[in-house]
Write a structure and sequence with these properties.
Length: 768
């Protein structure tokens, strides 16, 4: 790897330090006064160059870096408060915003400025968060914010993955405690060849969209993928290549850190309990917790209640025995012991708290066609996770359309299939806001997007309806997003959507033992079909969806600062086996899309309208189309110049619409005009471009253009003395095949000998 480094030293002149006080500002000013600039660049295997720069922009931030790839550049800043928060977790916030100015565009909304955060921005923020969070040290509970500021977007190279790398560089050069760096790449699969960091156009032809975040040495930190039923071996190959590519980027960020990085700040962690306190916790709770975790009759609620009872009792007793110890320390000591004891039982006995072995799947039950008015519906129950899915069809006009900036940054132009995921508080026996004003939370958006990725590859892209699939979680004890894939697949088949293959999803977890000195995993167990408590106390949430043939989606989050490739490979294989087993159970309920039509299903048909009848069909100002919508309840969509699509909510609405269309296009029997014949035409209107004439009563006026009025050049019909009501002779040359307009000429008659003139406006034929 060839790494190019350039640096210069920057000194500030006007820092009014004497106007401010406080250690934090003093530290900021000290860093600002003497701050180096450095640029590190490296060529990637794709032949493109990735560059990092630090020390030039946003120097008041604890850390900042600019990453550029092609003409796409992202500035990321990292700031962490000096005072710890009262929480016992890391309050990390990542804000990624798409900016129209970076793409050389103006926002298309009414105010012409960036407004609320979009779903795409939220999903990207979550992906960056999941790549960074595992590498913060244990006990670091200081509020931290990462802001991704797009400086320029070329519409070719990906700003999302670039933001992960820039965020990694910003944290690496900052004084914020962090065990990075990490690096990320996007992997594609084009013509059965794995491609590193494909362009936006290349991604349009890729069967795989995989983001790999990795740390040193060859450890996986985060995975996010959607795929077109990619084979397992191709998927694993892409992961391996992605991790290998990340190592070069990590070396470049390390070079930047060594060059301009600041020493990491010291921080205090929550004081741990004394040896005596930990021994007392173990003595008072071990046997009681063992009895709870080996009572396989417990469900989620009863187990949580039993553990909470032990916790409250132990804490109360220890508060009396250790009056000088902070109650928070006592509580955290119990939580730590419970977590370690829970994991120890799995590692040593290979038996889980609900009695299952490591690879066992909970009992599954399915059902479809729940309520008659629904286009499609299904219920999927796996253990104590219960999901109800419904399908609703609408016209193609209801497709979700993206703004130009989102399209330029790699988004879809329009989506005719989308999945909305809902997680009400009662699903976990809690209270809270329901609906939140119609705005889904970040978690709901993330889980819904993952389930949608799992199902989108099996839904035909040319389906004549827009499909909205809703997934409502009624009970949750782990892996509700993967249950949404299973329930959604059943509901789509119940709705008669011709999916290519049924899809299912499953989550697997990890419980490991790490050597405290080498920080390497010494022992581990992979758990199939995660419970909620196993997700909470475990090291990994590895969600995989797909069909019998291959993989359609994957999302992997880790609590460890990195997981070896060996565990990733085993997890993919174990999850794929479980997915196939779930598909076999689902097939017992419904094997393939329903072919017998429900009478409540909508209908879509195409009609051909002759070019010269389009005006009658559409009506003045689209009045006929509006009438069809308001009276018949149908939606008309123009496909091309002569083809229209009619969407009707049911057959009766379609029949009514067809009757109305017949009335619009109905005409009195008109004379058949003979090609090349000469007709008497009456002038009914004068225009700048010519005159409108009719051959017979109730005829739609046809234009006789100025160029066809006379052998001489005519600027206006009045120059020839023509008036409204006057009769003239014209020759008919049929209709234009594209526009359907009549082709008429008076000019050609001025050089012809007299011939029979047909008068269709009344009277007898005459010679002219």
């Amino acid at each position: 790897m060839a790494v190019h480094v350039s640096r210069s030293r920057v000194y500030s002149r006007n820092l009014f330090v004497n106007q401010y006080s406080g250690l934090r500002f003093g530290r900021i000013c000290a860093n600002y006064i003497k701050r180096q600039e450095s640029t590190v660049s490296l060529p990637l295997s794709s032949g493109k160059k990735l560059a990092f720069q630090s020390g030039k922009y946003a120097r008041f931030a604890d850390g900042s870096a600019v990453a550029s790839f092609g003409d796409t550049a992202v500035l990321v800043t990292a700031v962490s408060k000096a005072k710890s928060s009262p929480a016992t977790f890391l309050p990390l916030t990542v804000d990624y915003r798409q900016k129209a100015a970076a793409a050389g565009r103006i926002p298309t909304n009414f105010l012409r400025r960036e407004l609320g955060t979009s779903e795409k921005e939220i999903l990207t923020s979550r992906m960056i968060d999941r790549s960074l969070r595992p590498l913060f040290p244990d006990g670091y509970f200081f509020e931290t914010q990462i802001v991704c500021n797009l400086l320029s977007v070329d519409g070719i190279n990906d700003p999302e993955v670039l933001s992960i790398n820039a965020a990694s560089a910003a944290l690496a050069v900052s004084d914020i405690p962090w065990n990075g760096p990490v690096a990320a790449v996007r992997m594609g699969l084009i013509d059965n060849e794995v491609v590193v960091n494909p362009t936006r156009r290349e991604m349009a032809h890729s069967q795989l969209n995989l983001v790999v975040s990795s740390s040193f040495p060859n450890l996986v930190v985060m995975l996010e993928a959607s795929a077109e039923n990619v084979y397992q071996q191709d998927f694993l190959k892409a992961i391996r290549m992605g991790v290998k590519e990340c190592q070069n980027i990590i070396k470049a960020i390390e070079t930047l850190r060594k060059d301009v990085g600041k020493p990491k700040r010291e921080f205090t962690v929550l004081q741990s309990g004394s040896v005596e306190l930990l021994s007392a916790v173990k003595l008072l709770s071990e046997n009681r917790l063992r009895a709870i975790l080996r009572d396989f009759n417990h469900d989620k609620i009863s187990r949580d209640v039993a553990v909470a009872t032990v916790r409250n009792d132990v804490i109360e007793k220890l508060r009396n025995s250790f009056p000088e110890t902070d109650p928070v320390i006592i509580s955290e000591s119990f939580n730590k012991f419970f977590k370690d004891f829970f994991r120890q039982l799995i590692l040593e006995e290979e038996m889980r708290c609900d009695g299952r072995k490591l690879t066992d799947i909970r009992n599954i039950s399915c059902g479809v066609d729940l309520y008659r008015p629904l286009h499609g519906s299904a219920i999927f129950q796996r253990g104590q996770t219960q999901v109800v899915c419904t399908v609703a069809f609408d016209s193609p006009e209801s497709a979700l359309k993206s703004d130009p900036v989102s399209i330029l940054m790699g988004g879809l132009k329009a989506k005719n299939f989308f999945l909305h995921y809902e997680f009400p508080p009662y699903a976990t026996n809690e209270t809270g806001r329901v609906g939140a004003g119609g705005n889904a939370g970040r978690r709901e958006l993330g889980h819904g997007a993952l389930a949608e990725k799992g199902l989108r590859p099996v839904v035909p892209s040319d389906y004549p309806f827009t499909i909205r699939l809703t997934s409502e979680v009624l009970e949750s004890n782990g892996s509700s997003s993967m249950a949404s894939v299973c329930g959604g697949s059943l509901a789509l088949m119940d709705a008669g959507v011709p999916i290519t293959q049924p899809a299912a999803g499953v989550a697997v977890g990890l419980v490991s033992r790490v050597n405290p000195e080498t920080k390497q995993i010494e022992d581990y167990r992979i758990l199939t079909d995660l419970l909620g408590i196993e997700d909470y106390l475990g090291d990994m949430d590895f969600k995989l969806a797909g069909t019998k043939k291959g993989i359609t989606a994957l999302q992997a989050d880790f609590k460890l600062p990195g997981v070896p490739l060996k565990i990733i490979m085993e997890s993919v294989v174990q999850a794929s086996d479980a997915k196939s087993h779930i598909l076999d159970i689902m097939a017992q309920t419904i094997k393939q899309p329903r072919t017998d039509k429900k009478d409540i299903w909508p209908i879509s048909e195409k009609i051909q309208v002759e070019a010269h009848k389009r005006a009658k069909f559409v009506g003045m100002g689209g009045s006929n189309l509006k009438k069809l919508t308001t009276e018949a309840g149908v939606t008309i969509t123009s496909i091309d110049d002569s083809t229209f699509s009619i969407f009707a909510p049911n057959q009766s609405a379609m029949d009514e619409a067809k009757e109305m269309i017949d009335q619009f296009l109905k005409e009195e029997k008109e004379p058949e005009l003979e090609f090349g014949a000469i007709y008497k035409a009456r002038v009914v209107e004068m225009k700048e471009t010519g005159v409108l004439v009719t051959f017979y009563p109730k005829m739609v006026p046809a234009l006789l253009h100025n160029s066809q009025l006379d052998v001489r050049k005519v600027a206006h019909p009045s120059a020839l003395g023509l008036e409204v009501g006057q009769e003239i002779s014209v020759k008919y040359f049929g209709r234009d095949p594209v526009s359907g307009r009549m082709r008429l000429s008076r000019k050609v008659l001025q050089s012809l000998a007299s011939s029979a003139v047909k008068n269709l406006n009344g009277g007898t034929p005459s010679n002219s």
